[in-house]
Amino acid sequence: xxxxxxxxxxxxxxxxxxxxxxxxxxxxxxxxxxxxxxxxxxxxxxxxxxxxxxxxxxxxxxxxxxxxxxxxxxxxxxxxxxxxxxxxxxxxxxxxxxxxxxxxxxxxxxxxxxxxxxxxxxxxxxxxxxxxxxxxxxxxxxxxxxxxxxxxxxxxxxxxxxxxxxxxxxxxxxxxxxxxxxxxxxx
Length: 187
Fold this sequence. Notes:
Elements: H1 2-8, E1 19-21, H2 25-44, H3 50-72, H4 79-82, H5 86-97, H6 109-132, H7 141-172, H8 176-182, E2 184-186
Antiparallel strand pairs: 1-2
């Protein structure tokens, strides 16, 4: 019965059929807003045009909401739940190198570092994009280059993040991409 309920909710069946809600709607909407915004602004929309700016402001707004949610949100959304300490990160990477990393419902320490770095880069790209619209910085080449460098760094790290999610999906026999759609993971 549980397995049928899990499938009806869109989850692929697990060995026991049991699943738990991990990623709440705020986390998932933030994730897919950033993915969509980055694809639009990096590959589809023209730099500096109004649609590019609007998408940038939407991503900036989503980032502010996610930052607040990191303090007041649900368990797995809170920074306190996954903040990586150097010792936790060292232990996790050592276990990962041996192929014995633990499966975690929320962010693992390496994933947490990636998320925090991507959020910092997003903040930087949003800030530099906003600054380029100010009279004080109009036409400043260094600012445009910084904005572009940050955007390219996001692209590289996002590709690494996606590859790591696919690797971890394979290692732990669960579809992490699908869990970011449904919010549910195998119990």
